[in-house]
Amino acid sequence: MTPPKKPTSKPAKAAKPPLSDAALALVARRFKALSDPSRLALLQRLMSGECSVGDLAQSLSMTHANVSRHLTLLTAEGLLARRKDGLFVHYSIADPCVEKLCELVCTSLAKRFDGARDALPD
Fold first, then answer.
1. Which of 43, 49, 58, 109 has the smallest number of Cβ neighbours within 10 A?
2. 91: closest CA among 112, 104, 72, 117?
3. Would you say residue 7 has pLDDT above 60?
4. Which helix (H) or strand (E) is 98 found in, with range?
5. What is the CATH T-level fold of the domain 27-119, as seen in this structure?
């Protein structure tokens, strides 16, 4: 008869100092910027590469004004970069953490909801 296995304990994580109120406000602003489905659709499209406002509006069936409003907010939060080329403005992902964060959230949702993986992008 084999003896029962002892539970393995995980090493304790080093405690991180709590964030200041100002830092928490910045984190909340970042999550607020990511809380709109239209902005998430824009980010998802831009993960494929730089795109103009017109191309984004057409590919997502949104108005230019609506796209511009969302892009302005995302750019102000440091998530997007903006490049002017004559009359056109092109946007791209400025913060690579955005893609990692989206991947983490999608993976978490897939684990939480059985079968949700089919509805989420890879």
1. 49
2. 72
3. no
4. helix 97-112
5. Arc Repressor Mutant, subunit A (1.10.10)
The answer to whether 72 and 82 have CB atoms below 8 angstroms apart is no
Domain ranges for the chain: 27-119
Angle between helix 53-60 and helix 64-76 axes, rounded to 10 deg: 120
User: Tokens 């978490």 identify what position?
Assistant: 108
Give dist(CA 118, CA 68) in Å, integer.
31
For the four alpha carbons of 91, 92, 93 and 94, in that order, the dihedral sign comes to negative
Burial of 44 (0-12, 13-18, 19+ CB in 10 A): middle
Q: For 51-98, write each residue's pLDDT tens digit.
A: 999 999 999 999 999 999 999 999 999 999 999 999 999 999 999 999
Record the pTM: 0.77
